[in-house]
Specification:
- The structure is a single chain.
- With 152 residues, this protein is mainly alpha-helical.
- It has one domain (23-145).
- Helices cover 66% and strands 0% of the residues.
- The radius of gyration is 18 Å and the shape is globular.
- The two termini are 25 Å apart.
- 28% of the residues are buried.
């Protein structure tokens, strides 16, 4: 373990040492789980979603063929998010999600500026960075892949 700077709250060092192994599984779980509702909205019409409306929006942006792309995006968000959250095939799922979020950030949200309050690229860029981190790290502990003895 690398030498870490002294803790500002040394009386909590024993707590941190016992739970730090949970940090990455938490990041992976939240990253995947937060992608899933976006896919469920598109694919299953939940929370007012509609795949045809999504496709129409894609077509307005020049993303063609719009309907197949809408299904692809919804699938990456829902099923890819599920894979990331559970830690199975994490690297390919995270790569697919990172590409999707990169397109969302730069093709859709960039014209609105940086801040999410103006629908800028801040939010998709943050989730893209988290997906890239998951891609680099893989499934890690507390994952289906770890239980199977492999990391994908």
């Amino acid at each position: 373990m690398p030498n870490l700077p002294a803790s500002r709250l040394p009386f909590l060092d024993h707590v941190y040492a016992r739970v730090e192994w949970l940090a990455y599984p938490l990041v992976r779980l939240v990253t995947g789980a937060f992608l899933m509702p976006h896919g469920a909205q598109k694919l299953f019409g939940l929370w007012g979603g509609d795949i045809n409306a999504t496709a129409a929006g894609f077509a307005k942006l020049g993303l063609i063929p719009a309907l197949p792309l809408a299904y692809l995006v919804g699938s990456v968000e829902f099923f890819g998010g599920l894979c990331i959250a559970l830690g199975v095939f994490t690297r390919p799922a995270a790569l697919a999600a990172a590409v999707l979020l990169g397109v969302a950030a730069f093709a859709v949200h960039l014209p609105n500026g940086f801040f999410w309050t103006a629908r800028g690229l801040e939010y998709p860029l943050m989730w893209m960075a988290l997906c890239i981190a998951c891609m680099f790290r893989g499934s890690g502990p507390l994952s289906i892949d770890a239980a199977r003895g492999r990391d994908a």
